[in-house]
## 1
Amino acid sequence: MLSLLVFVQYFEEEVAILRNKVQLLEETKRLKFLRDGLDASSLDELQQIEDQLEKSLSIYSLLFWERIYQLKEEEKFLKKENAELQEKAGYSCYS
């Protein structure tokens, strides 16, 4: 269970870092556009970067939830296995 919490915390931190990078990139682009002036190609480039970042965040999110599912399944299996071993050993968690 601890490893699941550590894993979740890690991905929450990764998502926060990526969001900060996105904000920084957006602000940098905005300032560059203000300084250099806007043109159609710059806007297209910005849209492409935004699309790429959204895809990256989606992939991270998908991997994150997939791993959480895997860890929950592993936890279920280990709990079941633990209960079976306790039963074989004659141990009850209620005694």
## 2
Amino acid sequence: MPAGTDRGWRHGSVHYTEPSLVYYRLTSFRPGPTAVLSRRYLELTRRRVPEGTEREIMDPDMVVLELRVNEPGSAPADYEIAMSPDLVTALLSWLESRAPQRARRPRRSA
């Protein structure tokens, strides 16, 4: 994940859970995840090859995914994740296997 404007990329580990994608920065002293992206509101906005100086630090087969979390009541949050093509397949499979919006109904109390 990029650290922000002109700050480069942060190395880390991504874990998929049922409700979210959880990112742990490898060089953080802070316990717990650095970012939690809601699966329900997560969308892939763009897929691209590394550009500019990214090519200097990434393998040539890496893919950069641009993601947006658009939760109701919050401003959209944009993220980029760079990974190998086989990991892109896993992420997209996880993302596409979420239940459709209309299937998410609140459960009735018994």
## 3
Amino acid sequence: MDRCLVCGRKLKSKESKEIGIGPVCLSRINKVKREQKKRHKEKIQHKQEILKGQINMFND
């Protein structure tokens, strides 16, 4: 591939051409993925905190 699939800029490096995404767009994608993973983890922790005090029918 000669152009970035995200922004359309011309790709220069061999690695970028192989994956089809330039280094700037790839770093942005990775940043978004890290932020989503962090938000997901925080959401799960929040739900676990809420459930800690609830009574479960399986408790002895």
